Amino acid sequence: MTAAQPEFGVLVVDDDFMVARIHSRFLQTQEGFRVAGVAHTGIDALAKLAQVRPDLMLLDVHLPDMSGLEVLRIARQDHPEVDVIVVTAERELNSVRDAWQGGAMSYLVKPFEYGALAQRLDHFRKARAVLDTPQVDQNDIDRLFGVGGAPGRRTDLPKGLSRETADLVRRALTADEALSATECAERVGISRVSARRYLEYLEQTGVAQVRLKYGKTGRPERLYRLV
User: Fold this and answer.
1) CA 41 to chain centre
2) What pTM was estimated for this model as a whole?
């Protein structure tokens, strides 16, 4: 008889009622996750943290009464057992730094493909699995702290790719501008085919995300940007 899989309660915090509803509907499709509560203000989020005791909080930065980063600070102080994924349109480096230093386990910039959120939920699930293990080895610890990559993410480079060129391709990308393989190849100084392989690798490992740009005819163009 197999042990029951854990179910994680998620508190969704977003000032936009429609966005919060869409997040909630998506969570309902993810095995092992349930919506524990929804909040649209910082004060309501802090109250619900105490009321529903979620395992995870999806947290927007732009809230009507206080910054989501302040909610993060208080949450980490008063509810350290709750993990936080920041889900926001805020792209300022200071906000990203504050979230990182404040203890957020991930930072996802809107708009995004829901596959990117699914990756982060999987990261959270695997991290919790490591933390619930009675005894861990160094590889488990390294994955948990990001030394060997996030839990469950593939970090080994495919055959024929180099770490140095992968780093160059990653630095060519930004969170603000989506690039095609051709544009990335021109910036880095490699062939389009090679750029496409590196971009696909970065997308598979959760560093970049892809969206499709549809034209009038032909196949849609794949555009990449940093997560």
Assistant:
1) 22
2) 0.64
Whole-angstrom distance between the N-terminal and C-terminal Cα of the chain?
Answer: 40
SS3 content of the chain, % helix, strand, coil (to 5): 45, 20, 40
Collect all residues with Cβ–Cβ distance below 8 Å to 31 and sequence separation of at least 6: 5
**Starting from the edge strand earliest in sequence, which strands make up the sheet with 83-88, in order?**
33-39, 8-13, 56-59, 83-88, 106-109
Alpha carbon distance 143, 49 (integer Å): 28
Count CB-CB contacts under 10 A for residue 84. 25
User: Tokens standing for 12?
Assistant: 């969704």
The predicted-structure confidence for 175-216, as pLDDT tens digits, reads as follows 778 899 999 999 999 999 999 999 988 887 778 888 888 776
Angle at 166 between CA 161 and CA 169, to 5 degrees: 130
CB 43 within 8 A of CB 67: no
